[in-house]
Amino acid sequence: MHGADSESFEKVLQSVGERSSALLREAPGARQAVERALSQVAALRDAAPEPGDFARHLGTRLSGAADPMLALERLHVRDLALALSCAQGLPAARTLLEQEVLLKLRVPLSRIHPSPVFVDEVLQVLRTHLLMPRAEAPSRLLGYSGVGPLLHWVSISAVRLALRMRKAQGEASHVEAEVLAAHPAPGGLELGFVREEARGHVRAAFIQAVASLDDEDRELLRLHFVERLSLERMGALFGLHKSTLSRRLSAVQTRLEKRTRRALTERLSLPEPEVDSLMRAIHGRLDLSLSGLLAGRE
Predict the structure, then answer these.
(1) pLDDT surpasses 70 at 298
(2) Which value, in Å, is the radius of gyration of the alpha carbons in the chain?
(3) Which residues are paired to 137 by β-bridges?
(4) For residue 49, what is the DSSP state?
(5) CA gap 237, 62 in Å, rounded
(6) CA angle 227-81-155, nearest 5°?
(7) pLDDT (tens digit per residue) in 13-39
């Protein structure tokens, strides 16, 4: 590594902390890994931050990692650099963010509310939320760690914002439940075993059960079953090990089945053995596709 690249590596080491600096100095290929990262940043051209700024930012991102070399190899470097450039106000970076991230949010936001006007409103508020400077506070985009794609990180904020906006209308949990119930997914649970007049009750009971969950539980379900995020990716987003996340998802699904059963019992004039039979058919298949409980909207 020569010249500017060597200088950038030293700036990474200065920002990463004493322990991680020592580990990176000794790690085979660390200098080359930083060089590759800088090459990805340079490919952003007019949207790229200054190499020295990015090197310091990169060091800060790696400072808390148990294995900084492994963290560096897994980092979404280009996205991290783009977020930094946007936070610094580079027009080319903000244009790229619009093209690569914000415009791709229209589809998931339209699942929360189909109105283009509503989607436009959410995106405009999101732009202000992400890009406008804050008094005595760093840009929110500087909170992006580079773990997981920037698109997913912004998507979480966008969906939460949209649900908060719907909450003002008293519809947030119902809308989110509708998203989970109606969004098609491979392996969806068919309801052919339920007589025609009961299907509406099954769907309503499921929506009622999802709506009764707290916001965090519904968010976990949405990310896993609607957005198709893996446990590894979700764990990275929430800072949890995938085994911990798996247990939490399992617990949420158990609560969901119990509450669906309770709602069905209240809605259907069926003998208890028939309700039990229905829930046995559902049990164990909700984990295949909660979002595919019904094949589509009724």
Answers:
(1) no
(2) 23
(3) 134
(4) P
(5) 16
(6) 20
(7) 888 888 888 888 888 888 888 888 888
